[in-house]
Amino acid sequence: MTMLLDRSPGFGVYIHWPFCAAKCPYCDFNSHVRHQTVDQERFARAFETELATMRHRTGPREVTSIFLGGGTPSLMKPETVATVLDAVAKNWTVPAGIEVTLEANPSSVESVRFRGYRAAGVNRVSLGVQALNDKDLRFLGRLHNVDEALQAIGLAREIFPRLSFDLIYARPGQTPEAWQAELEQAIGRAADHLSLYQLTIEEGTPFHALHAAKKFAIPDNDHAADLYALTQEITAAHGLPAYEISNHARSGAESRHNLTYWRYGEYVGVGPGAHGRFVENGRRVVTIAERMPETWANLVEAKGHGVTGGETLTRSEEADEFLLMGLRLAEGIDLLRYEAFSGRSLSTARLSMLQGEGLVAPIGNARLRATPAGMIVLDAVVADLAR
């Protein structure tokens, strides 16, 4: 448990499985529906190849977490998952018992498959439940119903040592009373971690067009802020306080992999559309892979990787990203680490102004956090501090 709580940023490996059974209307992730069978062996080989290329770039490292995200990784065969996890262990040091998470949809859950993932080395599952009423599940374009969701939660709790599931709130017409009842039901089922996201309308999604055409409305900012405050209150009262804006956990059960992102650690991203951020030759580089799955696989087969974009960050870009990520966390940021990135300390005038407005607060002399009010307008707080 020490590793989860020691605040070291860590070195994570992210694997992106880009395929889904159906595309959800709110989703802007890199996910693709294929009506013919996906050649899993081909993609597994491509993951192996790209992981080996990334190992040449990072040098020897000790991995602190592995995350299989998507898309819908629970459409992978357990053998595919085993191949990928073995490839990670061939390239870097992977200590026994580190967090290995796989995202799963309740509609693609089978007991045999789950047991196969566990045997392959997965020890934490993140379930895309999204709602605990059938009407809203249909609205969100999900392929499962509430009964299937509850069955998947029960099965995951039985097979995996750790479980998280996602819910989306601030849905059309959702009252505080209805959300409270649903959230309390979720907390009763949760093991130790919940991810609770407000519904946002992302450009390029079907929901964006429907919302623009006034086919549905979502709660306004004030109503959404009330639902956010209610969420914080209920989860804290039940022992799952927010450790990040949208993530709640019992003490010690925080997602190690996501903490690596928010603590501005390093991570390798492998697969179609995956992003990575790691230190190479003393500088932090960003890697961005080709988004189209088959094009990515062709590139990997031709030149050993599918990276088509990226950059080397300047010190000031690193400092800004560190602020933006770290202030999402309840633990806040280490001010000395900010100074190491930026070469300067934060402006005392701006700090005292934001403190006076109740948007940030010091933690002792060494750390700074956003207050609950600051979390709601975090982008503006970061823009003020970064100037």
TrEMBL record:
GO molecular function, one term: 4 iron, 4 sulfur cluster binding
Domain Radical SAM core: 5-241
The keyword Repeat is annotated on this UniProt entry: no
Main location per the UniProt record: cytoplasm
Keywords in alphabetical order: 4Fe-4S, Chaperone, Cytoplasm, Heme, Iron, Iron-sulfur, Metal-binding, S-adenosyl-L-methionine
One GO location term (cellular component): cytoplasm
GO terms classed as biological process: porphyrin-containing compound biosynthetic process
Iron keyword on record: yes
Cellular compartment(s): Cytoplasm
Alphabetical list of InterPro entries matching this protein: Coproporphyrinogen-III_oxidase, Elp3/MiaA/NifB-like_rSAM, HemN_C, HemW-like, rSAM, rSAM_sf
Function, as annotated: Probably acts as a heme chaperone, transferring heme to an unknown acceptor. Binds one molecule of heme per monomer, possibly covalently. Binds 1 [4Fe-4S] cluster. The cluster is coordinated with 3 cysteines and an exchangeable S-adenosyl-L-methionine.
Family: Belongs to the anaerobic coproporphyrinogen-III oxidase family. HemW subfamily.
Protein name from the UniProt record: Heme chaperone HemW
